[in-house]
Known about the structure:
Blueprint: H1 14-32, H2 39-46, H3 50-56, H4 60-75, H5 89-104, H6 107-118, H7 125-133, H8 135-151, H9 160-180, H10 189-207
Amino acid sequence: MIPPGTDDERPIGRDARRDAFVAAAREAFFSKGYGATSMSSISATVGGSKTTLWTYFPSKQELFAAVVDDLVERYGRALEVEFDPTADIAESLRTMGRALLATVHARPIVDLHRLCIGEAGRFPELARLFHERAPARGKARLRAYIAELMARGRLRAGDPADASLTFVGRLWAGSIQSHLVGLIGPPDAAEIEREIDAAVDVFLRAWAA
């Protein structure tokens, strides 16, 4: 069993120390890559002993998961959208689209996607951890909303997963892909609205009852 760190290693509280480790790990992962970042280097950045870091995070993978959780908490707007199956479908999708694009185009989320893609060959578990904590949750909520609309006869019957891809896939095929690979920067508000309107139009043409 790893003994806990001592309080005199650094004059900060337990929660602040944990936050400092997560912040240092995020900076290191994004600037150096996951594989090139060691637990020792993160401990040295924050200060204190490696024992303290291992007490909070027994593995680098668990530390990465904490980085993802922190980013999802800060930027996961798309996971907070409330769907009302009685409200206007187009406006509900526009609200979802704005939240999704605001989230994915945020610089830390762009960096996280790039990290997972860049390390996929050696560390495929990173993408799985990220997907389970954010994209999978958002997709499930959108599928449930679409399934309810289909059950109410407001959309034609079909596979909610296919229907959700009609909308989300159109958004991803736009500025998101170009931004992630560095071809463009984040789009302006007008471009975001154009992309959302196009995605809503494609979705309703395909699935309106």
